[in-house]
Amino acid sequence: MTKKQLDESADYLKQKGFIKPEIGIVLGTGLGKLVEEIEDPLVAHYNHIPFFPLATVEFHSGKLIFGTIEGKKVVVMQGRFHFYEGYDLQDVTYPIRVMHQLGIKKLFVSNAAGAINLDFKKGEIMLIADHINLQGSSPLAFRNVAEFGERFVDMGEPYDNSMLDKITKIALRENISLKRGVYAAVIGPQLETKAEYRMLKIIGADAVGMSTVPEVIVANHLQLPVLAVSVITDECNPDDLQPVDIQEIIEIAGRTQPKMIRLFKELIKEL
Fold first, then answer.
1. Is the whole model's pTM more than 0.70, yes or no?
2. Could you say which residues form the signal peptide (predicted)?
3. Exposed, middle or buried by CB within 10 Å (0-12, 13-18, 19+), for 236?
4. What is the pLDDT along the chain (271 residues), one digit of tens a residue?
5. Which of 171, 189, 162 is nearest to 83 (CA)?
6. Domains plus CATH for the chain?
């Protein structure tokens, strides 16, 4: 990755009218309907954007969408990249750097996750207050990283406290149950064994998934305030483990996303 590549990607989008977005949003599995809330949308397909990776997962659609939500200019990733698709973590997080280059001042990230904390139930939303990186690498582990920012990034408070407080108050006001917990990011794409679920519980994870953490690390590298939520789509009880049904996961995410959209829209309004 070079600064020249980032400039070319951003210049292509600016020429398409992606001018001065304030908020970047990454939509997780089954959570794509937020794009229906965008006024006057402009669309750029990933395969047209210079140096962008291509989405290979069938339920991730691969578009960057620019427009207005609640009076604020937003740029939304409909379809993200994963380590398990064979990309390196610089590819996975390249769109975050491009959105930052376009001018975003805040980043929202969403994902579908499995509950390790069995007090969390399918269809609930968890606000990520902290995370555990189990992906075995870092999106900052490349030779010329210092050209893009400080190599040794402090991760003591990876999620923006002001946005955490705001969205918690919004959830109370809107009567939406919002859990708070620790997200563990694994590589995937295989799901976890019973022993792995037990290990995740022991090390302090409340939910597990295969994304988000690389994007959050890069946001911190860019000093970009970030907020992330998990939609809980399955319950990972090692003593009563049910076979995972990907279609059911997508369906539960779809049923829950109106609540997530409401939280995000109200937060956008207040920023």
1. yes
2. none
3. buried
4. 899 999 999 999 999 999 999 999 999 877 888 999 999 999 999 999 999 987 655 555 689 999 999 999 999 999 899 999 999 999 999 999 999 999 999 999 999 999 999 999 999 999 999 999 999 999 999 999 999 999 999 999 999 999 999 999 999 999 999 999 999 999 999 999 999 999 999 999 999 999 999 999 999 999 999 999 999 999 999 999 988 888 888 889 889 999 999 999 999 999 9
5. 189
6. 3-270 (3.40.50.1580)
Helix (H, G, I), strand (E, B) or coil at 238: coil
**64: nearest Cα among 96, 86, 90:** 96
Burial code of 159-198, b = ≥16 C-beta within 10 A, e = fewer? bbeebbebbeebbeeeebebbebbbbbbebeebbeeebbe
CA atoms of 45 and 57, how far apart (whole Å)? 15
C-alpha 163/C-alpha 175 separation (Å) is 18
**Parallel/antiparallel/unpaired status of strands 125-133 and 63-69:** unpaired
Q: Which of 203, 91, 212, 105 is nearest to 158 (CA)?
A: 212
CA 113 and chain centroid, separation: 11
Q: Are strands 23-27 and 72-78 parallel, antiparallel or unpaired?
A: parallel
CB 30 within 8 A of CB 250: yes
- Tell me how far the alpha carbon of residue 242 is from its chain's centroid: 26
Judge contact between 185 and 211, C-beta under 8 A. Answer: yes
CA dihedral sign of residues 89, 130, 69, 177: positive
